[in-house]
Amino acid sequence: MKLKGAQIFFECLKKEGVEVVFGFPGGAVLDIYHEMAAHNIRHILVRHEQGAAHMADGYARASGRVGVCLVTSGPGATNTVTGIATAYMDSVPMVVFTGQVPTPLIGDDAFQEVDIMGITRPCTKHSYLVRDVKDLAPAIKEAFYLARTGRPGPILVDLPKDVIQAQTDFKYPKKVDLPGYRPTVEAHAGQVRKACELLAKAKSPVIFAGGGIIISEASEELTRFARLIQAPVTCSLLGLGGYPATTDSGDGQRRPDPLWLGMPGMHGAYQANMAISHADVIFAIGVRFDDRVTGKISTFAPKAKIVHVDIDPTSISKNVEVDVPIVGDCRNALEQCLEFFEKAPIEGISEARTPWLDQVARWKKDHPLTYCPSEELIKPQFVIEKLHEIAGRDAIITTEVGQHQMWTAQFYQFDRPRTLLTSGGLGTMGYGFPAAIGAQVAFPDKLVIDIAGDGSIQMNIQELCTAVCNNIPVKVVIINNTYLGLPRQWQELFYEKNYTGSCMEGSPDFVKLAEAYGAVGLRAERPEQVESVLRQGLAIQGPVFMEFMVATEENVYPIVPPGKSLTEMLLTQL
Amino acid sequence: MIVTNDKRYTIGILVQNVPGVLARIVGLFSGRGYNIETVTAAETNEKGLTRLTIVTSGDERVLSQIVKQLNKLVNVIKVFDFSETEFVDREMALIKVRAEQQTRAEVLRIVDIFRAKVVDVSPHFYTLEVTGNEGKLAAIVELLDQIGIAEIARTGKAALARSKK
Q1: A313 and B71: CB-CB below 8 Å?
Q2: Which among A270, A276, A18, A319 has a CA at the least distance from the CA of A143?
Q3: What is the pLDDT of residues A35-52, one digit of tens each?
């Protein structure tokens, strides 16, 4: 039977198990919208296409499934670019469908025409311009396959209007035909053995784990492995939750996990940066040694032999020279490592490791992550600690980008994978709120909270309407310091306190704004109001903005000044 | 003085001949700050496959990144890193050289020595076709330059690995 391109579109989505599409209509995709009612796929109408892309991203990061968004040609397509680049940097499986002008008009500067393939080529894993309706089903099949396999990433599929109007016989291909695409999943056994032998001899090993652990669903393996070889663990921003920050101490209380170091890098924990700098072996897995982690590259981990596991060969030896490269899926590599050490346990491991773990414990004790509490001013770190206390370890937290993001990474104790969704690589302000909406769509019954700043919440605040209209009960904690906090902090520390452009005075009344959108707005102005606002806000059934008027010039510490080594971090206000 | 370990490398790339594949490859080089000195691309005997030869420069780390990044492109079937294998390479140049009465004989002598061909003749110019490796082309260009080159069009290098003995 012949089907229209628009019908084939939905048949393919069903074959891929897609439940929800985040989108915004326009001329070029109206044939698809016309078909939508006949198919059992949920559509979330956004208020800006950037929001659609971040929602698909948040949905994907929270669930592990491929996020889907659908937008029209021209400005609809260009509005998704930041969302696509965000997903690309953080390896998020996503398929973005963009409308395109009819094929005979392509290249003629037609109304709402843009070369979106050309624009997004550097920030997509792959892309398709479907020129013939016969190619539509194979393109969609390949798009989903590419998005979720290997190192995941966003795929763009550009759909000219005449193609989705044309008809053809629908047959969903069983297999993809991609002779140039063969990601290495199985880690090389010989390399794994080399890595394990190195670890077996190590005196001061550190495990450095990243987003790859979350993507490959390897947190259990990672946790078992770290405990087996008694190596302390640090996780990159995207790896947080991959190893539990707290552990059940047997009395029903959760206490900091003894092997947990916290996040390393520019705003990393003291013990994490010190451990990396003194390690003799670093077992890096699913990370890419971002410059925000390494600090000055020439002095990074100066004493360490580095093992690096990643599914993407380009990540290996890109920024740091690696001694034992292992290309493969993180979970596969960890399974092999576990097998090695279960067969050949390190003798007397606990005694052998004592000096190193004692040293780590001393670092932790000497310079814990801390802040100066206040009875007069709300400290932003206090809000995040309280939030963690109330919302707990099952809540899904998203963040925007800035000081609040770093405080979240430092003070919210993430125990489980996929509970922190944050734009790490691209550092996209405006990510967290739509991402929270996407995550909430994936998990309607979970508590989903965006921790935001007063600056970044305004970058995609229009999506509050999406949340209200679709009954998506996300909570937003706005840490309002009336500044763009990180630029201000840098200006204070490195630019002679010249606060040009970083003051955010004149922002709207977020409580009234929430109410105007039909949501609930709450505000705390004093420390003693924090807990009650949080408890009240989190208990409400719909979307809520909770605004906290915090100390305006609080800084994120530690900070490794740009261009400095990890050991040169500033620990407190000078 | 900045000391660089930059070397020139020749890379062969076998790709699926689909729209946009050249843009992906060239875009990868420009986006990541790699050099392209020459690039050639044409279909192979296998339907749907195109072979490119790119000459680039950089240090070993850059070369290794280029090879890995190229391999990562979905439409790239195979990358040949010729820094690790013996290979043959050739380039063709069309050279329009001034050929007045007093220089014609000299041009033809050079043509003969370099086993070039005259492919077009006009009252004041010869257009020559010459094929060879980089050294040969550089040599003939240097000689003809003294006589007067009006225009030159070079294909850039095409390369293949030597067969195993």
Answers
A1: yes
A2: A18
A3: 999 998 999 999 999 999
Chain B residues close to A126, C-beta within 8 Å: 74
Q: Residue A515 — very low, low, confident or very high, per pLDDT cuts 50/70/90? A: very high
Tokens of B158: 């095409």
Topology (CATH level 3) of domain B7-84: Alpha-Beta Plaits (3.30.70)
- Residue A316 parent element (H or E): none
Q: Where are the domains of chain B?
A: 7-84, 89-161
Spans of all domains in chain A? 2-169, 189-366, 380-556
Alpha-carbon torsion angle A466, A471, A475, A476, nearest 10: 20
- Minimal CA–CA distance to A99: which of A122, A130, A123? A130
Q: How far is B160 from chain A (nearest CA, A)?
A: 20
Within this chain, domains B7-84 and B89-161 share the same CATH topology = yes
Query: With bands split at pLDDT 50, 70 and 90, how would you rate the model's confidence at A252?
Result: confident
Indicate the length of chain A as a whole number: 574
- Does the domain at residues B89-161 carry the CATH identifier 3.40.50.10540? no
**Sign of the C-alpha dihedral computed for residues B18, B19, B20 and B25 taken in this order:** positive
- The CATH architecture annotation of domain A189-366 reads 3-Layer(aba) Sandwich (3.40)
Average pLDDT on B82-111 reads 94
Q: Which amino acid is at A132?
A: D
For the ranges A86-90, A314-318, A458-462, the lowest mean pLDDT is seen at: A314-318
Which positions ≥6 away from A517 have C-beta within 8 Å?
Answer: A464, A465, A468
Where do runs of H (alpha helix) occur along A243-329? 270-278, 291-294
Where residue A286 falls among pLDDT bands split at 50, 70, 90? very high
| Residue range A2-169, CATH number | 3.40.50.970
Nearest alpha carbon to residue A226 among A344, A324, A349:
A349
Q: Class of the A380-556 domain?
A: alpha beta
Residue A316: closest C-alpha in chain B? B65
pLDDT of residue A251: 86
Residues A545 and A538: beta-carbon distance below 8 Å: no
If interface means Cβ-Cβ distance under 8 Å, which residues of chain A face chain B? Answer: 117-118, 121-122, 125-127, 129, 131, 146, 178-181, 312-314, 317-318
Residue of B nearest to A142 (CA): B74
ipTM (interface predicted TM)? 0.92
Q: In terms of CA atoms, which chain B residue is nearest residue A115?
A: B20
Query: Averaged over A476-495, what is the pLDDT?
Result: 97
Q: What's the pLDDT tens digit per position in A205-224?
A: 999 999 999 999 999 999 99
Chain B residues with a Cβ under 8 Å from any Cβ in chain A: 15-16, 19-20, 23-24, 27-28, 31, 61, 64-65, 68-69, 71-78
Phi, psi of B6 (to 5 degrees): -65, 135
List the A233-235 sheet strands across, edge first: A260-262, A233-235, A205-209, A281-285, A305-310, A324-327
Asked if residue A531 has pLDDT above 90, the reply is: yes
> What is the separation, in whole angstroms, between the first and last Cα of chain A?
74
